[in-house]
Structure formats: structure tokens, C-alpha cells
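In this section we turn from sequence analysis to structure. A common task in structural bioinformatics is to predict how a protein folds when a small molecule is present, because the ligand can shape the pocket around it. The inputs are simple: the amino acid sequence and a SMILES string for the ligand, here pyridoxal-5'-phosphate. Study the lines below before reading on.
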Amino acid sequence: MPRHIDTLQTPCVVIDLDKAEANLQRAQDYADAHGVRLRPHIKTHKLPLFAKRQLELGAIGITCQKLGEAEVMADAGIEDIFLPYNLMAPEKLARLKDLARRVTLAVTADSDYVVDGYAATFADSADAPLNVLIECDTGAGRCGVQTPDDAVALARRIASTPGLVFGGLMTYPPAGNSAGARQWLEEAAAKLADAGLPAKAISTGGTPDLWRAHETAIATEYRPGTYIYYDRSLVARGVATEEDCALNVLVTVVSRPTADRAIVDAGSKALTSDLLGLSGYGTVMGYPDAVIYGMSEEHGNIDFSASAKKPKVGDRLRILPNHACPVSNLFDHVHLVSGDHVVETVAVAARGRVD
Ligand SMILES: Cc1ncc(COP(=O)(O)O)c(C=O)c1O
């Protein structure tokens, strides 16, 4: 007899399996229809089970943000991993070399310093060189070389270094401006071709512009992450509906200190403090006018003054968090549910692997 979600201790994460599956399938159908190759980012779920499902549905490999996450996924049998991160320091580079022996691997660099670290580590690996893509800042203001000419200069350095191969370009485009990123990548790809260093792979991504992925025809792969669960920030952007969102935090009302205020047993250690430009720390499902206006570590403060319906002490609520990915990192386990029943409780294998 499956467990009912009312028997789960709160706060906890519940993942609606049917919704997650529908989200994955919809994105893969879109990708298949448009000839887009998906390389999903597993930072959102951190679960080998979902990474394997993404591959079964047609993904060409996975993306991990940290070496530790990639090690967990390799241990689970995943064979093709992109690690778009500037990796440095001897211990970490030694781990990278071990990982490169086990899986098909690509990494990124955006500076001579990072390339030099890879070069020193893989100097004796001419038979199995490290595939290095160049991270490009196409407007998001994160890591990345700043101009297509900088990309060409770094590509030359990678291509002329024993133990390394120049793999192409990678970017995390600014949300809502995939056209600007496309222009940047097209210019860089043309300059690389002129320099005799064609970009084999051009990797872009992001759930905010997932449904426009096909417009960046020059890209060879697309890395969506949050699309498996979606979250309140993506609902606010119009990328998904609340109904599509697969991850909720289940909480209990532990106090009703005033007629309008409720305190729940989930604060920043369960919901994170991420606002992502929104007001309030999440949506209380079924109470659209409630506002999660404040949090301490273990308490969430909710204003129900605009809500006709108000919960009682002891009531359980579902919260749709602003940002699903860091919530996954806060829980040892998540409950996979179908409707109101727990199908399975799984360890979040790659949580905390920020090294
Ligand atoms: C390098 C990289 N690729 C892909 C993604 C996935 O983005 P999203 O969660 O918006 O789908 C991220 C998210 O931060 C990222 O950093």
C-alpha cells in the first residue's frame, strides 16, 4: 500500500513524477521536431534516476556544474558528461584526469590560467586528450571571454597545446536575449573557421528560452536544466504554468500568531532566500493571494490578509519555490509522488557536491 503524502514529515520535497515526465517528454518532443540535441543540466534534480531518464528519452549526454556532481553521475554509469566550469588547483585537476579516464568528457576554459592547468595535467595524455570548449560571455555577465577575437586567441592556445583539443564554444545566454547570443556565436564561429579552427561543438542552453532553441541554428546542443521541474520564476516568465511545476516543498503551519499571519516550518534552509526578482519567497499552492514575506532559517512567515481562505495550525501546505535547483541541494532525500501517493523516496545523490 503506497504511503499517502499526508504521512510525510515536513518540511520535505515532493516531486510529482507524472509532471516531471511530461516536462521531459514535451521538451524532447520539441527538440526532436526541430532537430535540436539536448544535453540536460542535472544541477536541477541531482538524481541519477532522472539523468538516465533524460538519456533514455533522447538526450545526447548530460551537463554537470561541478566536478563532484560529475563524479556522482559517472559512478551511476553515465558515460558522456559536459562540465562547463573553469577547473583549477592540483587536487581538482587530478580528479578531473581520473574522471576523463572513465567517461567521455568535455570542460570549458575562459583564460590562459585555466588552459595552463589543463595542459600541465594532460601533458602526457596525447592518446586521450582533454576536450576543451571556450566559455563565451554573450551578455549574461557571468564567466566567459568577452569578444569573438578573444575566443579565437584562446582557441589557438588550446589547439597548439599537447594533451588538449579545442572542442568549440559554450555559453549560458542572457535570459530573453538568445538572439544577441546567437549573433555573438555566429561571429565567433566565422572567425574561428577563418583561423582554421572550426568549432566542432557550440553549446548553449537555459530553460527561459528553451522553446526558442531552434532559432540558434548554429548551436550543436542545448542545455536546459530547470525544465524538468520548472519553478515560480519560470511561471512568472511565462515559460510554464503552475500546473507544470513538479517540485513542491510540503510544509506545516506551526503557528498562527495573528488573524492574518501564519508561520510554517520551512525557512531559508528549505526554500532558499532566492527571490530572482520576484516578491515573496514562493507561491502557497491553493492560496494565490498569500504572500511569503519573510523567512528565518527554520520559519517562513506568510501574510494571509488578502486571502479569504486561511489555514489553521497543523494544516499542511504546498509551496512552489522561486528557484527549484538550490532547493534540491538542501534536502538529503526527495519523495517521488504520483497524485497523493509516495512512489519512492530517493537520496539526492549529487547534493552538496559543490567541490
Ligand atoms: C552552464 C549552464 N548551463 C545550463 C544551465 C541550465 O539552465 P536552466 O536551469 O535555466 O535551464 C545552467 C543554469 O544555471 C548553467 O549554468
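The two ends are 40 Å apart (CA to CA). As an exercise, try to locate the residues that line the pyridoxal-5'-phosphate site and compare them with your own expectations.
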